Amino acid sequence: MATSDTLLRLRYRFFPDRMFGELLTKSWIDNVIPALALVVAVLIMVALIPGYLSAGNLADLARQVSEMGLIALALTIVILSGGIDLSVGSMFALCVLTALVCMNVLGLPIAVSLVATLGTGLVCGLLNGVLVGYLRLRAFITTLVTLVIFRALYDIIFPRLASAIVGNMAISPTWDLIGYGDFYGVPVSFFIFAVIAVALHIGLSRLRPGWRLRAVGGARRSAYNAGINVKLTVCLAYVTSGLLTAVAAFLFSARLGSTGADTGIGLEITVLTAVVLGGVSLGGGRGSAGNAIIGTILVLILSNSLIRLSMPGSVNQLILGLVLIAAVLFDRKWVKNRGKILSKIYVSPTFLRLPERDRKAEPAALAINDRLGDTELIGLGTVEGPEDVILDRNDNLYTGTRHGTIVRFFAPDYNRSEVFARIGGHPLGLSFAQNGDLLTCVGGMGVYRVTPDGTVAKVTDETNRSLLSIIDDSRLRLPDDLDIAPDGRVFFSEATIRYDMSEWAVDALEGRGNGRLICFDPKTQTTRTVLRGLIFPNGITICRDGQSLLFAETWACRISRYWFDGPNKGKREVFLDNLPGYPDNLNRGSNGTYWIALLGMRTKTFDLAMRKPSFRRRMAKRIASDEWLFPNINRGCVLHVSETGDILGSYWDEDGENHPSITSTCEHKGWLYLGGVSNNRIGRVRIKDADPDWTALDDYWGKDR
């Protein structure tokens, strides 16, 4: 048995199964298949066409990518907003005509010509934006109509100016540089395209306008309810599309110096094929600048190669049409099945063997009792999810709710309450700083500070990223509990980096070290991870030596001590192991003791399941999540322990009526206050023989502070 357990530990330590699931969560995974298709296409063309990778051919391809890539980016932005623009081909033709008239016919300076071309694209995009965004007309029909309008304008104007355009040449070194110039063999137009593409990538993936655009495209009603100006966002998407199309037309005009009756005809289909082939979803909200660029290169390689292979134009169009159908079909299947695949493989159990407990040999201090049977209930029905509780120097009681607020109950009877602060996320762990500020961990948001007057400010929402982590663990996903060291440093736990607040219990099925201990230093305003690989780290309390802290690892059923200062700095040891239940928050008590909340009790069934990772994996794959085997987190108790880790006593709710699930405890002037993340009330019970004057704030900061 020992050998088998050792092999299982080694197997799940060195060959983790979570990597594929984490890869599927990455947004760039949509680029993988188009990128592979691009590599295959290049290899095929190299084999079929002699000299395909010659410098001249690559330079010509780069110039075409610059022009078509900008239009693909333009269409991508519109599609991300949930719309479509079929008028880009005709809009492109109008902008080309404007640029050539300004440069060849009127002889205007290049800057004026550029402004005129951008103005044409702006007007065309604004027309689409107003019709679709503000008047809420259907994007497909609207842009089909504007396609006809823009093409009609082009057909009316072009014949009258064709001779003048062809018969004159622009005299401008800058114009020639844009059209034919290069830098170390790379066309200048490609550098222009690269700068714009990088800026758009940053804007779409890292800045607020991009997030809003995706939100509108993904769920327009939800975006509206979140306070996003949907109409303006959609309108600006079309305006941006018009401007990018105008830039592409300007580069095209500089390269060819002429135009024809067929300019832009069918371009919308080619660009749409490139965008969809690159992985931009026609459903909106999903895609990137990288998708558009990969698709553009792939389509240009395919179409140019077919021409060089002497394929008729009609065959070329037929193949592009078939490719578009295949891309749309794949996109539909991928979007439909990606979530299903992810739900089956993301949960990645590992081996976790907890020491067996001999119930008959348990100390008398753990015997089931009914000390919580007479618990006084505070705020019954007025609070939802009071995960942690804390009291100030005026005996007022504070707790967070799942509605995103911190509620204050006024002493002495706690019948009157008010919303002390509105955070936005669910406040979990709470702790008072020396200056009276209330700090809280907020699920999905980070660590926040609330001043005595109720002003809310962010403390930190990120830490240093792990070098070998697939998922981005720099952002705080589930900060849980916190405490403040004598020098002001804030130590807090992040229970898991793989699951959100709504899925925190699923982390129990993995049993792996997905959590970490983090420190924020207010002096340097930096946040650093100090311990990784913790098994759902939960409650934290600073020890009275001012150099160490205790933290709970819930699914490991243990309390550990970590020294952050002093001669033992960096050392970690077990403080209390093999607990009968799952520890949550822990806090100081009077007489040098500590209180530990157990949110649920261990069962032999789940302990056995934790030693069977393959069983848990099959369970997660084959049955619905509401039928999974979870740990017992519905009924717990409170433990009272000494400063050396000896269990002094326990508090149970024998009938399970007042506080079956307990996630936090707080001693204050002879009373024990109880919180529970699944409760709708706070509990209060008398502590026998407790110091009636002891408070946590005095123990931390002294009575005169």
Short summary:
With 705 residues, the protein is an alpha+beta fold.
Explain how this protein is built:
This protein is of the alpha+beta class and 705 residues long. It is built from 19 helices and 26 strands. The strands form seven sheets. Strands 3-26-25-24 form a four-stranded antiparallel beta sheet, with no helix packed on it. The two termini are 57 Å apart. The relative contact order is 0.09. The mean pLDDT is 89.
- Tally of structural domains: 2
CATH topology of the largest domain: Neuraminidase
Mean pLDDT equals: 89
**Biggest β-sheet, characterized?**
4 strands, antiparallel
CATH class of the largest domain: Mainly Beta
Task: Give the low-confidence spans.
Answer: none
Q: Structural class given helices, strands, pairing?
A: alpha+beta
CATH superfamily of the largest domain, by name, is TolB, C-terminal domain
Q: State which percent range the strand residues make up.
A: 15-25%
Strand order in the sheet with the most strands:
3-26-25-24
CATH architecture verdict of the largest domain: 6 Propeller
Calculate the terminal CA-CA distance, rounded to whole Å: 57 Å
Number of strands: 26
**Rounded Rg:** 32 Å
Instruction: Assign an overall shape.
Output: elongated
The helicity comes to 40-55%
Count of DSSP helices? 19
